[in-house]
Amino acid sequence: MSERIDSKAFSEYLYDCGVCDYCVLRYLKPQYEEFWDVRSSLKKRGIKIAPESDESFEKKSKTNPCIICYNVFHEIDELIQKIKNHEGLKKYNQINTFLSSFCLPVLLELTQLQMWLTLLDKFPENFDKERLPDMPIKDAVKTLLNDKLEQELDKTFDPDGLMISIFFNIENENEILSKLDMIAPELMTDRNKQKKKYKTEVISRNYFAKHFQPTNIDIKKFQEHLPLPPSIPSSSLQLTQISFTGPTVFVAGRYNKFSRHLSQSPWFIGEKRMSEGSVQESITCHVAPYFDALPSAVTFMSSGREDVDVRCLGRGRPFALEITDATKTTLDSSTAADIERKVCQSRVVSIRDLQIVKRDDLHHIKSGEEEKRKIYRALCTLRDKNVTEDILTKLDISEPFEIQQWTPVRVLHRRTLIKRPRTIYKVKAFAVKDKPHLVVLDIITQAGTYVKELVHSEFSRTEPSISSIISMDIDIIALDVMNIELNFPPTVVRENA
Amino acid sequence: MEKFYLNNDDYEENVESIVAANREYEDKPFPSVVDRYFTRYHYKRSSSNGDNEDHLVLFHSNKVCMIMLDKNHIAFTKGIVDINFDVGNCDRSQNQVKGKHKKGGMNMQHNTCIAIIKCADDSQYKIVSCVQGRLVEVNDRLKTNLSKLNEEGNGYVAVVLLKPDNYQKSINILIDDAAYNNIKS
Ligand SMILES: [Zn+2]
């Protein structure tokens, strides 16, 4: 076991090497709160801090940045002001949670290792090769940054919040890192193999952390190429970029489609647009603006889909939108009602129950597809034959039965050829006044049943079929989805609707 | 019959709502499945003695083809007594395809034999692929239902998926409906 070090003498040594106040504190097993006011924290610990006044210390530190952290800690207050006043932040003012993602130069991993090696050499009694000598820079920066951001931005930290990304750079980083090749060529071999893939960086943070440990480094060889302790940097680290990405929100609802000439998603064959508009676009174009999202940043999902020429009536089909980089995470009832009204003005699509849902709720829409029951109404024709009571009686089926259905030819170019068993739960047939060749069928099927093929049998590729049950040709003129048995999203009652 | 009429109150959407879809077929017949989804092409073929062995190709817009005998095929006059998918070195009814890309399906040239039919007079005729592509499915239900061979659509013998680059090449070998009917008359 290593002995406890005399913190006064030890910190004096660190100051002499050119280590900053924050980094000195990092080596003294600190609490995170101590970083808030680092100089008084050090004083409390009885450390003789560098004698300069704050002002001149700043000046000195500009010319002589900390040998380990390149003055990253001194940048934090300025960084926070830059974030606070950033143009890009303004549109997210309604989001009251955030998370930060900062990318420190890999070189800081190297300086931390250099200092570790130095301490192993100078204070062999007090440090060992297995245990980190300090609180890592990234942990201290992360805590300090998030605490200060919470206070200054008046937002709370939340992994699902507004993402603030911060990028730093050190001028001659690659030049210094390239020396690793000479220090430990055996540790760099894997890396150099991947180099073609990662042209821009000499080494990744993960690779460094995994391979460069005091246990597998030859200190003598190391010192031939890099100094211990690290030398005084020529410049401190630079902030290169701040960017903001809003949270991803999920909005769900149910839609009706009243047109027999509208596809669910934009329909292309090759480059050619096959039909104008789509359910997806009719909805997205009124939902996306509220979240300041481009329609292209919105992903449309639904519980199955109907063909272009099939209407979707009743309570409609459950759908969800995934909106990335949103500027809002809430949707109040009156705004939702307003969006519903706008979509309805298209006259071909209407939506209801529009609401924010959680990512976890999406499984309602995505999975269990086969268990859902779907209720259809089909208008069928017997062509030159007339409907009889016998036919209608044969098509009054309340006992579930199974059919075998080959993948229809019309989707065969993009789906696997397979014979699927499907359950038909109920069939009921109706005659139409003054149209003796027409039959209306109400059919309840297992989800995933191709209903058109169920009616006409598609050259006996679906068996049994409505056609085989009545031993007659029967064809389908029109189809409507009357209901989809899925209680998601929950029904919303609008106050003034 | 009254009890079979649809009750207007069964759904919010009334009956007229779906029956309206029939309006455009009041004075013309509702097109058949073949009319709605396929284009008819013909493949000319004749025996050495000049007998008609024409095939019909139902061409779906998604480049899936259904191959069958043309109604002018001599076999229909003679009477078909058997269809056999076990031709020469392999049984076409054992053809199996996997996945979206129909892997494992036999590669067909336009004159590759899919099945052999036998007529009442013991004569035999080959049914060929007519198009270049991948054999996806054969209709072996026909074995026990030979009368269907003469029904457009129901009598399909095989499904062949064209490869996109073979599309034009395949079309060029075939004759469209209008041209075919002109030749005949
Ligand atoms: Zn430092």
UniProtKB/TrEMBL annotation, chain A:
GO terms for biological process: tRNA pseudouridine synthesis. Residues 66-242 form the Pus10 N-terminal eukaryotes domain. Keywords: Isomerase, tRNA processing. Its EC number is 5.4.99.25. The keyword Transport does not apply. Pfam families: Pus10_C, Pus10_N_euk. Residues 250-485 form the Pus10-like C-terminal domain. SUPFAM superfamilies: Pseudouridine synthase. GO terms for molecular function: RNA binding; tRNA pseudouridine(55) synthase activity. Belongs to the pseudouridine synthase Pus10 family. This is tRNA pseudouridine(55) synthase. It comes from Polypedilum vanderplanki (Sleeping chironomid midge). The lineage of its organism: Eukaryota, Metazoa, Ecdysozoa, Arthropoda, Hexapoda.
Automatic annotation (TrEMBL), chain B:
SUPFAM superfamilies: Single hybrid motif (SSF51230). One of its GO terms (biological process) is regulation of actin filament polymerization. InterPro entries: Abitram, Single_hybrid_motif. One of its GO terms (molecular function) is actin filament binding. It comes from the Eukaryota. PANTHER family: PROTEIN ABITRAM. This is Protein Abitram. It comes from Polypedilum vanderplanki.
